[in-house]
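Methods: example folding runs. The two proteins below were folded one after another, and each record is reproduced exactly as written to the output file, sequence line first and structure-token line second.
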Amino acid sequence: MQPLSSTSLVHRVRGELGSQGASRRRKPIRSPRMEVVATTDAHEGPVYAADEHALYFTSKPVPGDPPRVDIKRLDLASGEITVVRADANVANGMAIGTDGRLIVCEQGSFHEPARISAVDRRSGATQTVTDNWGGRPLNSPNDVVVARDGSVWFTDPSYGHLQGFRPAPAVGDHVYRHDPATRKATRVAFGFDKPNGLAFSPDERTLYVADNGAPHHLLAFPVAGGRLGAGRVIAEGTPEHPDGLKVDAAGRIYASASTGVRIHAPDGALLDEIHLPGTVNFCFGGPGRDVLFITTDTAIVAAVLHAKGA
């Protein structure tokens, strides 16, 4: 296992990634060289903690009843990997909350409810943020983002039921907003097949949502007053994608695909691609926020970009 350091991360994506308002004609792809920073079972939920120079992630599910998933931590200076919370209720996507705790999508099981939880990074102590919509249980929350006002936005597809470790859904596959003031979750968007990744534009006026069920769309929703306006399709993904979504400081959208990470303009135009088949999810990190940490189920791969995370 190679520790991540400022001297070892010298490989860069060649050339600029395009600009806002680019034409819809695709630019030539220049494949970057990338570095494996850890060989491990990193599956979902990568989150960079700047105060620790560490990466948190959820492990690849181990088959069982229910599947076992751990929340783990990679120390990027030493390369050491430790378990923060073992057997974490089939945890998936994660974000960092306004108080520094991990905000975790727990998909649940037949024995434990699905929920959004807050997990202390040091002790692993866990508290429920929300586990229902109007008294009805959630399906299997998949990805989550935290807005500047502290509200928690998350997707809730029914993959747990389809994969055999959750009961039949009581609600549809929706997107929700949890208000920390009222402690209630509100449905903000519906009509998806399988809503998955989500990310805000830098000004939080647009929420991007990946629907990786048929027909594999990337959608954009205007945001105002904690609500979403009508969504519009801005791009199509590959089968079972897009999944992970992130946005950089210039507003470009990064979306996982079967071939790696596609980079789109805010209007959906395809600008470039980081070629890495097997990509599951990713996040921006590093002291300059210009490192893209990519999980692949067997490794964490890093690429240094000429772009900074939002």
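Second run, written to the same file directly after the first:
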Amino acid sequence: MSRPRVHEAAGVPPEIERELRDAFELVASASEADGVVVTPAITIDGAYLDAAGPQLRIVANYAVGVDNIDLEAARERGIVVTNTPGVLTNATAEHTLGLMLALSRRIAEGDRSLRRRDAWQWGPDFMVGEGLDGKHVLVVGPGRIGRRVGELVEALGAGASYARRGDDLRALLADADVVTLHCPLTPQTRHLIDAAALAAMKPTSILVNTARGPVVEETALVSALQEGMIGGAALDVFEFEPRVSEELLELENVVLTPHIASATRSTRHAMGMLCVSALRAVLLEGQTPQNAV
């Protein structure tokens, strides 16, 4: 009896590929597959699903966000879509805290200065930054990751508050020293942080984004940074990813990382195993997995 067929639409770690090979036949295209493993870099829309064919039963997304997938198109075709919730909470929260500190304590800026071999000498005012102790951190999106970020910053002496759907975001932004984004990308949150939102922030405040790039209107952010409307930005995601605007690359009051907030070895393994278990549930056991969205 033939085994169910799975297509890896993007590379996965070797140990996850071994798990897939043990349970399924790996095939070269979605048109041959009963299930596919995809990443946020791959758009799954109606055209993709139609091209894959009616035999496709599950799309396993190697991420917690599913903004790259047309859920309604999948629902219409009876295709299960799964994600990887929970297992990347701590890794993403740690990276968020790292970005905050790298920017506010000027760690990345200092690293760049030394690599350029700039002349320097220690002094009381040399590269002075800001700590988190006593600061007000606004967490936009109090899900698993957002709440964990709140716990971490409070451990360093900051106060955390949370912006929920329906809150007056502009009023909350005006009081924050750090604004950190942890909401999913939806039609309602696209460009949630636009020119007006940035204008509501303090000129000394910083913006951190480890959610999804289009939550921030990037051209408005560049203008706000260039004009000193806010103090800085630390970004792991970008509106037109993987392209990063040249203006952001040229600014010193910016810290940038290439969408790696969940990139610890154990986290990426756990994410992969959630994909494997979802594929097994649908294709081998005829069940709906717990991480179906």
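Comment on the second run: The mean pLDDT is 97.
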